[in-house]
Amino acid sequence: MREEIRVVLAEDQGMVLDAFAALLDLQPDVSVVATAGNGDEALAAVERHRPDILLTDIEMPGRTGLEVAAELQRAGDPVRVLIVTTFARSGYLRRAMDSGVAGYVLKDAPIAELVAALRRVHAGERVVAPELAIAAWDHADPLTERERELLREATTGASNAELARRLNLAEGTVRNYLSTAMAKLGARNRIEAANTARERGWL
């Protein structure tokens, strides 16, 4: 008999969350010990229940799944993170690997593949959907962390002066970072640059 795999499941779409939980609970060796509808709830559930695996989506309210994984890595939490998402973006996969994620699979995969990935991750392996592994090397992320931060903030509509105050930077420094990011992405303005970066999974 297989060892029980204790899972916290994080997904912001209620119907998808319930469906995943029900399907996983049908497995004799998988136990969904808690569910979460956003990144903050996921972190709290991991701290409270100490699962073997956090199975999480990427795009959720509050912290994203990638930000949750990075926070758990910084905290030295032993939980293994398996990302399950609709987004086959190379930038997301690279950031996931940098955040110590143990697996990355797509939502449109059969449930049998997801369960197999859970078991492999629990056994200490790293699992990546083959199509994602190939796509990961199509585009290298050219942005620095500061450029990424400023592009995220720029989408709020804040002026350079407001961004400078918010991030405690000189206004000229903000302008230079944004100009460099736009040049790297071949964008005409900050919003176009942010959209391009988001489409490629770099934000």
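Second entry:
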Amino acid sequence: MRPPARLVAAALALYPPHVRRRYGEEIVDLLAHSPRPWRDLTNVAWNATLERFGTVRRAPLRPYAARMGALLFAPMMFHIAVTVGMPVSSILAGAIGALVGRGTVSVSGDAGLQAGFEDGPLVGSIAVVVTVIAVLGVRAARLWTDALRLPALPVVVPAMVVLGAAGTTVAQLAYTTLANVPMDDALDPAWVAVPVSTVLWWILLTALVTRHRGLVRQGRTAAARLVVVAATAVTAGMCMTVHLLATGPQAPVTFLLMTGFTPLATACTPFTFALLRVAHRREVAAGG
């Protein structure tokens, strides 16, 4: 039994473009006539990964330190926007829910202002905040041209954005957990959810960014947009699922949406694809 054509194409896509152009047909022919196709496919994927990272190793990363730092810094700005925007929209949504009889807004002693966290408008307000930040991030991607002058963009850009998002979230967890909880109880379930979400998100982004880049180069812009939409939706669902498994089934949906990794990863996903889209347009302009 031979590997499906999709797996062969995926393994070949891991190679840098100049390697695919020169050796692509030869590699496909080798796999088609190999007596050990699965073993050879694994070797092809492994060598392609080494070749891809080799393009990064051969180009010293020190000159790119500032640009990589900019990519790490971008999620921090999104994180601040999410942190500021969500409480405001939550209070407004709770107030709207109270006015139509489906939510509550009350002021009580130590608890302060309480919005109706089980109210439908609250979930909608959270979605609006994340959507606005994602749209602004996509538009701002045009200003990040210096940060895009990096080797192996489909590998480096997702890695830097994911690390930046994870770093800002971990910093918030460290502050809130250690400031409000005794040290003996400092291990919050979110500490487990964040690294798991980080790894899964990086794998998802790297795979879909490669696919998106291929579609864009083929001129299939509609299919490329569908990849972005799917990646954003899957990111939100994946992060919420991981947090749900970590916190238990009692956690309300609004809690999963408002806290942890979910809103930040969801906003950063279209931003990452926008960066790669800008890079492609610049490549076309430079070559044309």
